[in-house]
Hints:
Blueprint: E1 3-4, H1 11-31, H2 34-60, H3 65-90, H4 116-129, H5 160-169, H6 171-178, H7 189-229, H8 233-263, E2 270-271, H9 273-276, H10 281-290, E3 294-295, H11 299-304, H12 311-316, H13 325-339, E4 345-346, H14 348-361, E5 371-373
Parallel strand pairs: 1-5, 2-5, 3-4
Helix pairs in contact: 1-10, 1-13, 2-3, 2-7, 2-8, 3-8, 7-8, 8-14
Amino acid sequence: MIRRAPGPQTPEAFEAFARELDQLRDDTRRQLGELDARYIRRLLYAIRACESAGRGLLTLAGPFWPAWLLGTGLLGLAKCLENMEFGHNVMHGQYDWLNDPRFHGKSHEWDNACSKEDWRHFHNHMHHHHTNVLGVDRDFGYGMLRLSGDTPWEPRNLTQGLYAVIVALAFEWAIAIHNMEVEQLRVNREATRARMKQLWPNVRAKMWRQFKKDYLLWPLLGGLAGLLLGTGFVPALLASLAGHVVANVIRNVWTFVVIFCGHFTDQVHTFDPAEAARESKGQWYLRQFLGSANIQGGRWFHLMTGNLSHQIEHHLFPDIPARRYAAMAPRVREICAVYGVPYNTGSLPRQLATVVWRIVRYSFPGGPRALSSLGPSPQPHAGVTHITN
């Protein structure tokens, strides 16, 4: 028997639950203004400064290791901020109201091997609209990880711990090919090959652009600088190349940790696609709560996570500027308390430990089910148009 999800239990309660969350969203939207505009502009300038300094040090310092460490660290910092707090949030349309192409969701192209078009499809639409709906939201397990007893066990799941480590190290490349649904080759070969053929040109172009920038052009510039400065072409080239590799690994591992801790902790639920197709707006909101997890931390920690340490608030209000989530969180928790909705939060070590345990536990047959029922819906889903930005 499928367990009944906690939270509102009647149509009237779901309606009141949705009304309070809608009110919070609308109140916050009315507060948006110059402070938010100034914040995102300053963030962009800070990212550019860190990136320029980092790449400059890796180009000019060559094998001089103190400068190499500083350059690598600054470039890694820039990439983390650009992907998490800037690129991800801008591509959700959080700053479309500025009418500035630098901050518009459809025009921004981030420093990542995944193209903006693919990201907007499989993340902004498929994941946010269908959060944790089994067989629909491919971000739940990324098509390869078994994370619930509702998913049939296969011998290949024995290796998913190793697979998760590889994905963490090369996360930008993993999400670059995610939208092609490569794992479906096992069950639907012809249709998957046709899809891959259609999507591959765009995927290849973005991956090549990223590879060329980080692993060819900048290392070559470093080699030429080393030749001019007397440190040697090859040592300087290799130092720059290594710095770019390490900076990308820093970004990849950090992104992986934050995203997995926001989606795959031990308290996360999954849902039936037939039920989700006819859910009310209040049930949609409840599904976001039960499919998300927060990470506790301070101001700078939240900045480095792109405020995805407030994953619950992000799933509820994906088009609200993420810098507002910390201020919204207390009211969200009050609403949870009133309606009996769990608010899944914990320290980074705690949340990461449950993620690791979940990956390891479901490597083997069996395991608890995560499937939950939201209850009967009195009306079709009213639609949440802001989630598709």
